[in-house]
Structure to design on (1000 residues):
C-alpha cells in the first residue's frame, strides 16, 4: 500500500526574525527557571546555557550582516540529545520516570531552540515550553509554584503574538510592553472559562499523572520510640497537620493528638504492637468537638485525632488511604500509608480516660527482667508506702516534681545499658520521651499496666485563617495507665514543666535558640508574615489543590446537575462558556465601535462636503482635506481645523483613553457646527 | 495649520520653527525644499539636489550649516578630482620623521559636493562610501567623520556630456533627491532687491549646535507611528511593486529598506511640522523625494512617478 506523502506544499516557511527569537528565548528561560530547582544543577545550567548560546549566535549574526550565518547542524544536535539522555540514564539509574523525563525535557527545549529557524519551529517550541512550564506542578502544587509559572505564561502569550505578526514592520511596531499587556488581557479574558472548566469539567478521581509521590523523604513520628528521637523531631518546623474547628478550638492543655501507641518495651526502646482492628468508639458525649484535619503526607498509615476519636474519619478528598479502622489502642489506622495530602472530618470526645479492654492489663505489664534494676528498686520502695494504685501514681508524679529534674532538648549522654536508670538517678535531664518512658517503667514495675502514647501536643492557633497549625516540633509522648479499670492519661512532662503543656514547646524551653525559627514565640513580624503565608497556603490546599471529584460532585448537586450524568456538566460548561465569549466579543465590538466612532463621524463629514461639492480625494489625508475645505469656506475654518486635528489625533497619535473621550467630544461638536450641505453650497 | 504638539516636543518645535524661519529669510520662496532638506538632516540621511546652477543650492547648504552651528565645506567636483582631494592625504613630515594626516574637506559636518557627476567614478565612490560608513579608512587607519555628518550633493541634469552619472545603486545612498526650481515672481523680486546673500549668511546667529542636533535626530526617531499609518506605508510599498493592479509604470519596486527610510523621513517631517505623530500628509510630503530617485533614474522623472503613485493609493 502506498502511503500519501505528508510533506506540505506551498511557500517556504517564514524564517524567524531576531525579535521573534528574542521573545522565544525570554519565554523559554522563564519556563525553565521555576524548574531549575528540581533538576540536577548541571542540567539547570546546561539548559539555560543552550538558550543563551542561541541568543548570542543571533546577536553575532546581527552585528555582522554580511558574514555567513553560524549554524549548528541538526545531526549534531540529535547526537547531543541522545548523549544527554544517556547521561541522565546513568545519573538517575532509570530514564522513564518523573525526574529524568523532566530533566530531559528541560535540556531538549534548549536544543530545539538552537535549531529553530522558522516560525513553525517557533510555534512548536512554544508548545514545548508550555509543557515545561507545567512540570513544576508534578513536584509541588503550592501557591508559590503557581505564582512562579505566571511570568512564563505571560511571555509565552507575548511570544505567540510576536510569531503571529506577519510583516517585519508589524513585529517592530509591537513594543514589548504592549505585547505583554495584550497577552495578559487575553489571559484575563480566558480566566472565567478556565475557572468554569476547573470547577465543572468532570474530573478523574485520584491524581492525574499517576506519579508516585512516595519517593520523597518525609519526617514524622515513628512506630518506635527510643531516647532522643522526639527531641530530634523537634528540630523540624514543617507542618504535620492543620485543623479547622467549627467553633473555638479546645484549650492547649486538651490538645492531645493521638498517634502511635507503644506497649512493648525492651529496656531502651518502646515499640508499637500489631494493629488489631477491634477498638471501640465511645458514644458521643457532652464535650464532643468536630473539626476538619488536613494531614500532610507522612508515609505512615496513621491518621491523627484529638483524644479520643469518637467517630471514623469522613474523607473529603478522593485520595483515600483505604478503609480506616480504630485499633485496639484507640488509634486511627488506614489500610495504606498517607502519601498525599489528606482531608477528613473528625469527631472527638475530649476525654482523658476510657474503659480498658479485657486483655489490656495483661499486655501492658511486661518489663525486660534484667534491665534498669535501680528503677525497679525505686518502684518497690514507693509501692511499699502506697498500696493504692492512684496514690502510687501520684507519688511517682510527685517524685518528678520534687526532685531536681530538668526539661531540656539536650539531655547529654545517658547510660547506654540501662537508660531509664541513667536518666532517673544520674542525669535527671530529659525530654518528653525520657519522662514518658521512665514513668511507664515505674508504673509497670509496680504492677500497674501502662503504655506510652506518642503524637502531638498543642498546636499554634492561626488567627488569620482560624485554624490550628500542628508542627513536627509539637511531637510529644505521654503515658496511659489503667487505674480503676479505666485507661487514664498521665503526662509526666507536665509535672516537670507545666509550661510545655500550656504554651507549647517554645514556652517551656529556656533557651529558645535551640528551636527552629518558626516554632519560637518571639520571632515578631516574621512570625506574623509566616502565619499569613501559612493561612494562604492552607486556603490554597483546601480550595484549589483539594478541589477534587468529591467536592466537584457537591458543586454539581448544588447546581442541580446530576452527578451520574457528566454530560450535563459538559453542557453547562458549553452554555456558560459561550455566554462568556458572547460577553467578551460584545464588549470588544462595543469598544471598537467607540474607537471607530471617530471614523463614522469622519466619513459623515466627507459625505457632507462631497454633497456640497468638495469630495475628498482617495489619497487625501485629514489635515490636507480640512485645510482645503477651510480655504473654500473660510467662515467655518475653525470648525474644519478642529475636525481635522481631532480626527488626525484619534487615528494616528497615541492618545490616552481619557484624552480620547475629550477628542471625540470635540470632533462631535465641531461636526454639529457645520451647516447642511445645501447651505454650504449656497454660501460658497 | 499645526496640531498641538506633545508637551516634550514644545521646545524642539519652537526651535525648529525659528531655524526654519531664519532659513526662509535667506532661501526665499522655497518652503517645501527647505522643509525637505531639514527633514533629511533630522532623519540622518543625505540629500541629492538635481538642478541647474544658480537656483540657490549652495546658498541653501551654507545657510543650513550656519543656522545649525555646523562646520561647512564645499567640494567642487571636476573630472580630475582624486579621492585624496576629498578624503585627505598622509604627508611625510621631515621633522617628525612620520606620516601626518591632512584631513580632506569631507571632515566637516555639512559637505556640499557640487556637481558630483563631473568627477570620475573612483572619486564619487570614495565620497559615497564615506557617506554610508560615516568614517574614512586610509592607510589602514579608520577615522570617524564628525557627528552629525550631512552631505548635500548636486548634479546638473541638463549637461551630461563628459559627465559620469551616478549609478542606481549609488543613488540609493541618498535619503532624498529633490529639485529646487525657479523661484516664483514675488520671491525673485525680493531676491533681486535684497542685498548680498553671503554677507547675510555670515551675520546669521547659530541657533543650534551638534549635541542639540543629535538630540533632535533622536527625537525625530521616536515620533509616534500608528498602525493605521503603517498600513498606509505598506500599501504604498506594495503599489510601487506593482501589486493590486495599482501599477503606475514603476520600473522597479521599493525595497523594505526604502520603506524604513520613508518612515524615518516622514517622522522627521512630522517633527519639523511640530506634530507628535506621523500623518499620511507627512508620508506624502516626503514620498516623491524619498522614492523618486529609487523608482526612476532622475529626480524629476521619479518624482512625477511617485506623485502618480500617491494619487493611486487610497488611504486605508
Amino acid at each position: 500500500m502506498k502511503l500519501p506523502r505528508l510533506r506540505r506544499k506551498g511557500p517556504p516557511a517564514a524564517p524567524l526574525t531576531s525579535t521573534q527569537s528574542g521573545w522565544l528565548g525570554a519565554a523559554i528561560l522563564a519556563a525553565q527557571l521555576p524548574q531549575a530547582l528540581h533538576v540536577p544543577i548541571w542540567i539547570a545550567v546546561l539548559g539555560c546555557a543552550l538558550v543563551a548560546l542561541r541568543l548570542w549566535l543571533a546577536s553575532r549574526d546581527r552585528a555582522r550582516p554580511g558574514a555567513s550565518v553560524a549554524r549548528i547542524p541538526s545531526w549534531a544536535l540529535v547526537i547531543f540529545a541522545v548523549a544527554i539522555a544517556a547521561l541522565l540514564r546513568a545519573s538517575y539509574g532509570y530514564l522513564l520516570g518523573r525526574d529524568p523525563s523532566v530533566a530531559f525535557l528541560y535540556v531538549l527545549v534548549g536544543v530545539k531552540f538552537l535549531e529553530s529557524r522558522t516560525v513553525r519551529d517557533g510555534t512548536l517550541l512554544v508548545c514545548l515550553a508550555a509543557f515545561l512550564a507545567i512540570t513544576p506542578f508534578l513536584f509541588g502544587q503550592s501557591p508559590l509554584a503557581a505564582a512562579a509559572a505566571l511570568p512564563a505564561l505571560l511571555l509565552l502569550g507575548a511570544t505567540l503574538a510576536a510569531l503571529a505578526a506577519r510583516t517585519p514592520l508589524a513585529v517592530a511596531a509591537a513594543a514589548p510592553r504592549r505585547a505583554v499587556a495584550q497577552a495578559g488581557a487575553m489571559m484575563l479574558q480566558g480566566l472565567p472559562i478556565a475557572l468554569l472548566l476547573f470547577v465543572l469539567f468532570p474530573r478523574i478521581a485520584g491524581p492525574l499523572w499517576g506519579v508516585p509521590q512516595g519517593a520523597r523523604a518525609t519526617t514524622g513520628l515513628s512506630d518506635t520510640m527510643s531516647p532522643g528521637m522526639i527531641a530530634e523531631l523537634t528540630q523540624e518546623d514543617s507542618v504535620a497537620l492543620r485543623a479547622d474547628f467549627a467553633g473555638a478550638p479546645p484549650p492547649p492543655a486538651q490538645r492531645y493528638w493521638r498517634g502511635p501507641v507503644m506497649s512493648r518495651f525492651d529496656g531502651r526502646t518502646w515499640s508499637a504492637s500489631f494493629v488489631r482492628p477491634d477498638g471501640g468508639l465511645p458514644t458521643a458525649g457532652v464535650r464532643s468537638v468536630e473539626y476538619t484535619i488536613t494531614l500532610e503526607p507522612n508515609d505512615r498509615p496513621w491518621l491523627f485525632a484529638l483524644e479520643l476519636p469518637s467517630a471514623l474519619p469522613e474523607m473529603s478528598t478522593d485520595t483515600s488511604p483505604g478503609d480506616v479502622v480504630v485499633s485496639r489502642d484507640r488509634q486511627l489506622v488506614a489500610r495504606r500509608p498517607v502519601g498525599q495530602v489528606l482531608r477528613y472530618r473528625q469527631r472527638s470526645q475530649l476525654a482523658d480516660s476510657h474503659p480498658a479492654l479485657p486483655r489490656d492489663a495483661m499486655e501492658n505489664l511486661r518489663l525486660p527482667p534484667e534491665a534498669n534494676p535501680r528503677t525497679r528498686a525505686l518502684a518497690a520502695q514507693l509501692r511499699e508506702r502506697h498500696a493504692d494504685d492512684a496514690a502510687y501514681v501520684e507519688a511517682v508524679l510527685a517524685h518528678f516534681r520534687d526532685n531536681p529534674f530538668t526539661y531540656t532538648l539536650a539531655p547529654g549522654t545517658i547510660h547506654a545499658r540501662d537508660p531509664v536508670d541513667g536518666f532517673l538517678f544520674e542525669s535527671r535531664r530529659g525530654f518528653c520521651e525520657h519522662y514518658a518512658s521512665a514513668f511507664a517503667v515505674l508504673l509497670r514495675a509496680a504492677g500497674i499496666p501502662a503504655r506510652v502514647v506518642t503524637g502531638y501536643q498543642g498546636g499554634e492557633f492561626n488567627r488569620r485563617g482560624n485554624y490550628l497549625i500542628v508542627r513536627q516540633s509539637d511531637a510529644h509522648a505521654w503515658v496511659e495507665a489503667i487505674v480503676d479499670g479505666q485507661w487514664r492519661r498521665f503526662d509526666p512532662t507536665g509535672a516537670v514543666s507545666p509550661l510545655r503543656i500550656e504554651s507549647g514547646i517554645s514556652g517551656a524551653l529556656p533557651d529558645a535558640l535551640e528551636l527552629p525559627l518558626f516554632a519560637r514565640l518571639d520571632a515578631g513580624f516574621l512570625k506574623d508574615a509566616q502565619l499569613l503565608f501559612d493561612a494562604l497556603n492552607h486556603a490554597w490546599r483546601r480550595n484549589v489543590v483539594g478541589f477534587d471529584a468529591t467536592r466537584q460532585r457537591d458543586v454539581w448537586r448544588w447546581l442541580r446537575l446530576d452527578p451520574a450524568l457528566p454530560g450535563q456538566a459538559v453542557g453547562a460548561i458549553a452554555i456558560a462558556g459561550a455566554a462568556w465569549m458572547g460577553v467578551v466579543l460584545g464588549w470588544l465590538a462595543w469598544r471598537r465601535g467607540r474607537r471607530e466612532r471617530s471614523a463614522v463621524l469622519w466619513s459623515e463629514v466627507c459625505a457632507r462636503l462631497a454633497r456640497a461639492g468638495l469630495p475628498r480625494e482617495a489619497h487625501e489625508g485629514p489635515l490636507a482635506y480640512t485645510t482645503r475645505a477651510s480655504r473654500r469656506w473660510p467662515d467655518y475654518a475653525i470648525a474644519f481645523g478642529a475636525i481635522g486635528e481631532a480626527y488626525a489625533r484619534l487615528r494616528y497619535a497615541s492618545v490616552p483613553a481619557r484624552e480620547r473621550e475629550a477628542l471625540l467630544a470635540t470632533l462631535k461638536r465641531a461636526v454639529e457646527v457645520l451647516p447642511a450641505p445645501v447651505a454650504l453650497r449656497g454660501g460658497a | 495649520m499645526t496640531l498641538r504638539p506633545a508637551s516634550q516636543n514644545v521646545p524642539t518645535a519652537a526651535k525648529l520653527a525659528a531655524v526654519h524661519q531664519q532659513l526662509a529669510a535667506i532661501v526665499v520662496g522655497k518652503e517645501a525644499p527647505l522643509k525637505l532638506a531639514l527633514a533629511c538632516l533630522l532623519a540622518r540621511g543625505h540629500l541629492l539636489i538635481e538642478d541647474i546652477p544658480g537656483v540657490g543650492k549652495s546658498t541653501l547648504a551654507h545657510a543650513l550649516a550656519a543656522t545649525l552651528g555646523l562646520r561647512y565645506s564645499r567640494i567642487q567636483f571636476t573630472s580630475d578630482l582624486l579621492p585624496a582631494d576629498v578624503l585627505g592625504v598622509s604627508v611625510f613630515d621631515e621633522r617628525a620623521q612620520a606620516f601626518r594626516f591632512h584631513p580632506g574637506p569631507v571632515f566637516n559636518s555639512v559637505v556640499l559636493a557640487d556637481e558630483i557627476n563631473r568627477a570620475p567614478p573612483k572619486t564619487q565612490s570614495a565620497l559615497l562610501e564615506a557617506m554610508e560608513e560615516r568614517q574614512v579608512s586610509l592607510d589602514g587607519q579608520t577615522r570617524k567623520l564628525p557627528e552629525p555628518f550631512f552631505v548635500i550633493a548636486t548634479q546638473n541634469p541638463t549637461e551630461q556630456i563628459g559627465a559620469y552619472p551616478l549609478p542606481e545603486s549609488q543613488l540609493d545612498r541618498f535619503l532624498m533627491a529633490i529639485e529646487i526650481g525657479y523661484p516664483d515672481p514675488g520671491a525673485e523680486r525680493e531676491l533681486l532687491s535684497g542685498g548680498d546673500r553671503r554677507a547675510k549668511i555670515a551675520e546669521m546667529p547659530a541657533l543650534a549646535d551638534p549635541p542639540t542636533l543629535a538630540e533632535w535626530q533622536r527625537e525625530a526617531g521616536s515620533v509616534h507611528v500608528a498602525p493605521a499609518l503603517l498600513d498606509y506605508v505598506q500599501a504604498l510599498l506594495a503599489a510601487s511593486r506593482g501589486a493590486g493592479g495599482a501599477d503606475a509604470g514603476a520600473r522597479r519596486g521599493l525595497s523594505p529598506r526604502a520603506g524604513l527610510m520613508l518612515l524615518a523621513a516622514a517622522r522627521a517631517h512630522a517633527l519639523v511640522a511640530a506634530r507628535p505623530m506621523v500623518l499620511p500628509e507627512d508620508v506624502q510630503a516626503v514620498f516623491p523625494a524619498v522614492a523618486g530617485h529609487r523608482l526612476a533614474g532622475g529626480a524629476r522623472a521619479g518624482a512625477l512617478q511617485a506623485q502618480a503613485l500617491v494619487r493611486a493609493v487610497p488611504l486605508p
Remarks:
- Chain B touches chain A at residues 1, 3-4, 224-230, 233-234, 256, 259, 276-281, 284, 310-315 (CB under 8 Å).
